[in-house]
Amino acid sequence: MNAVALSRPVPLLIIAAAWEAATRGGLISPYALPPFSDVVASFLTMAADDLWFHALRSLTRGGAGLGLAIAIGVTSGVLMAWYRPFRTLVNPIIRFFYPLPKSALIPITIMWLGLGDMSKIVLIFIGCMLPIVVSSYNATRGVEEVLIWSARGLGANNREVLWEVVIPAALPEILNGIRTSLALAFILLVSSELILSRDGLGYLIGFLGEGGDYAGMFAGVATIAALGFTCDRLYVALTNRLLAWRTAA
Amino acid sequence: MSSGAIRQSGASEAEAILARVRQAEPRSTARRLFDAIGPFVAITAVLLGWEITVRSDAVIDFLLPSIGVVTSRIFEDVITGRFFENLVLTVYRALIGFSLSAMVGITIGILISQVRLVRWFFDPVVSLFLPMPKVALIPIFILWFDLFDVSKVMMVMVSTMFTVIIATWSGTRSVERELLWSARSLGASERAVLVQVILPGALPQIITGLQITLPVSMIVTLVTEMAMGGGGLGDALLQAARYADSPGVFAGVLEIAATGFCIIRVMDISRRRLLRWHQETQKRG
To answer: Within 13 Å and on the Cβ side, how many CA atoms surround B124?
Structure first.
């Protein structure tokens, strides 16, 4: 078991070694693929310089947009399932916006809010909110009615049923929808920064790429990848904690 | 039978009873009327709100052009054929990338499920790349494949492939063991088991994976067009924004929304076709 766990990162090491060998050996031009060690060196110089500034800018935008999307999205999803009139009114609007590829909104948010933080936050908010609304709605509606009847039969009022039965029962699916949105938030963040921005990691990789600093560009891309990976892992750990009561049952 | 299965069958009985109760329950006419006109009320309210905001001069026309201006712009785009030119480019890139990702992703997913060495190699690679925001690769792909269709198609493929791999892999794992045992004990070869039992059993999840990746293909195509140019709906949209042509931007967004809507509808319909034999489709009647 331990040996298996230890051998897990070996394929990644093989890839890194093959990368280093192919570029140092002259098989691939360093202009197409800078050697792995150069990328690491670049990362270290950038980490001592402005890499963290850009990373912090990006994470603040992503966090603000996603946080708003979670707060408003979960509330309206649950309300849609709980109050019929609300669903009838909101559903057509959701159905219209849901299939819209969210990146199409980048020019509109830039026109409305300029190149700064607000345009990215609003873009991420709109883009991430819809999947969250839909998953919370489906989750709340999918709660077994037997559970609700039992709670009612035991004398719970509407509010207690909602808070103590429906929301806990819907939580796993809601949390799953938020995970999808977490990935989407990164996509929207990086693409909006790459297309038009003045700072942030997306801007940084575009800028370095155009300037011909390919080792720096690869280091920037690796930083984004690492951030995406870490956020996803942290989120999964948080989910497991929140749902710990489920596995015990 | 495990206790989980018993609970399942109990739940489905309850569902059947519920369905009958619901059918018998008469719904008031007022409620039915509200359900029928509610959606139109909501859409009309949004459109009215838009028009009132424009007419009241609360915002300048640049930020929100009137509905009339935007619709006539869409009309113009359709009549001059500009819309179709861009549409064909965008859909072509998205679909080629999507099909490549489906082919490569399903193949790797199946290999992962069948061959231990492949699983050992790809497991860490997939779990590293799956949560990565693949649009960050755009500058690298520009460097490797230049600015034209190849790099856009490759971007779409790489962005969506890992989701397909995961969906295929978990689909094959969800196939009931009893089915595999029965097939083997009836003398099916490993190949026959794979083609006739595992693949059909995994198909619903594979299609779910494809249903997720198709809209993502559209998103990525639009982003690459915005970042690299070269025609297509995304490029047209960004050009309009660059030249501060706000009716063009709004018309472009609505055109893209309509395209996205159609693509998702087609995917829904083909899912029902492909899974006609599956309980999921039959339940819907």
So the answer is: 15
CA angle, residues B248, B252, B256, in degrees to nearest 5: 175
* Unique residue bearing structure tokens 């709100």: B49
**A128 contacts B219 by C-beta, under 8 angstroms:** no
Q: Which of B132, B134, B156, B259 to mutate to test the interface with A (most CBs of A within 10 A)?
A: B132
ipTM value of the model?
0.81
Tell me the C-alpha to C-alpha distance, in Å, between residue B243 and each of B62, B229, B253, B255. 12, 15, 16, 19
Task: Report the distance separating Cα B235 and Cα B239, nearest Å.
Answer: 6
Q: Hey, are the CB atoms on B226 and A191 less than 8 Å from each other?
A: yes
Q: How many residues does chain B have?
A: 285
Give the helix/strand (H/E) hosting B141: helix B138-145
B39 and A CB contact within 8 Å? yes
| Separation of alpha carbons B66 and A235, rounded Å | 43
Please identify which residue in the block is written with the tokens 């009339």.
B68
Contact residues for A190 (Cβ-Cβ < 8 A; gap 6+): A58, A201, A202, A224, B133, B135, B136
DSSP annotation of A103: G
Which chain A positions have a beta carbon within 8 Å of B125's beta carbon? 11-12, 15
User: Which 3 state secondary structure label does DSSP give B18?
Assistant: helix
- Dist. CA A232–CA A238, nearest whole Å: 10
- Best residue in A39, A66, A103 to probe B by mutation, most B CBs within 10 Å? A103
Query: What is the C-alpha to C-alpha distance for residues A91 and A228, in angstroms, rounded to an integer?
Result: 31
Contacts of A218 in chain B (CB under 8 A): 140
Q: Which of 119-158 (B) contact A at CB < 8 A?
A: 120-125, 128-129, 131-140, 142-144
d(CA B166, CA A198): 36
B21 at interface of A, judged by CB pairs closer than 8 A: no
Query: CB B139 to CB A205 under 8 A?
Result: yes
Spans of chain B below 50 pLDDT: 1-9, 284-285
Integer Cα distance of B235 and B250 in angstroms: 14
DSSP classification of residue A132: H
Q: How many residues does chain A have?
A: 249
- pLDDT tens digits for A220-246? 999 999 999 899 999 999 998 888 877
Q: Where are the beta strands (DSSP E) in chain B?
A: none
Inter-residue contact B154 to B97 (CB < 8 Å): yes
User: What pLDDT sits at residue B4?
Assistant: 43
SS (H, E, C) A14-48: HHHHHHHHHHHCCCCCCCCCCCHHHHHHHHHHHHH
B46 Cβ under 8 Å from any chain A Cβ: yes
pLDDT tens by residue, A106-145: 888 888 888 888 999 999 999 999 889 988 988 888 888 8
Handedness of CA B99, B104, B106, B107 (dihedral sign): positive
Tell me whether residues B139 and A9 touch, CB distance under 8 A: no
